[in-house]
Amino acid sequence: MKKIYVILGIIFCQNIQAQDLSKSINDVSNKTQTELINWRRHFHEFPELSNREYNTGKYIADYLNSLGLEVKYPIAKTGVLAILKGGKPGPNIGLRADIDALPVLERTPVSFASKVKAEYNGQQVNVMHACGHDAHTAILMATAKALKAMQKK
């Protein structure tokens, strides 16, 4: 049996025709677009500094559990591991995303801008996702959903 490990995401591999895979991915992607946008905005609005991503990790773990994945949380304090097994033996694949934010002031005039502050080096600082981890994590959650939808037992 294939095992796929995903750090903050999911790992999956199965034998499937390329045209079938492309159609499946497009179908699931179209159905997941609004969720993906909402996840990214949620992570952007509620960032957490490295090794303090307790709410973020729980949010991800809860969602991956809802998909029916085998989820291990927490790993290394705030990490999430999800396993999606395929129906045939073969190589394992791993996907990962970072979830930490940076001590940076948000200057973006959007409704989901971060207003979070946290202690960093003994000072209160603003916190935001300034390098894309919010998007990476949302994309990996959508990937998990797509792979689960295409899973063959």
Q: Spans of 5+ residues with little confidence (pLDDT < 50)?
A: 1-15
State the major sheet: 4 strands, mixed
Shape: globular
The CATH superfamily label reads: Zn peptidases
Q: Into which percentage range does the β-strand content fall? A: 15-25%
Strand line-up across the major sheet: 2-3-1-4
Tally of distinct domains: 1
**Overall pLDDT level:** 88
Report the strand count: 6
From the helix content, strand content and strand pairing, which structural class follows? alpha+beta
C-alpha-based Rg, rounded: 17 Å
| N-to-C span | 10 Å
Count of individual helical segments = 3
- CATH topology: the name is Aminopeptidase
Q: Which percent bin holds the helix content? A: 25-40%
Return the CATH class: Alpha Beta
Q: What's the CATH architecture?
A: 3-Layer(aba) Sandwich
Series of H and E elements: EHHEEEEEH
Précis, in short:
Helices cover 38% and strands 16% of the residues. The chain has helices spanning 18-45, 54-66, 133-149; strands spanning 5-7, 70-75, 79-83, 94-96, 117-120, 123-126. α1 (18-45) packs antiparallel against α3 (133-149).
How does this structure look, described?
- The protein is an alpha+beta fold.
- The protein has a single domain, classed as Aminopeptidase.
- 38% of the residues lie in helices and 16% in strands.
- The chain has three helices and six strands.
- The strands form two sheets. The protein has a four-stranded mixed β-sheet with strand order 2-3-1-4, covered by helices on one side. It has a two-stranded antiparallel ribbon with strand order 5-6.
- A hairpin with a 2-residue loop joins β5 and β6 (123-126).
- α1 (18-45) runs antiparallel to α3 (133-149).
- The N and C termini lie close together (10 Å).
- Residues 1-15 have low confidence and may be disordered.
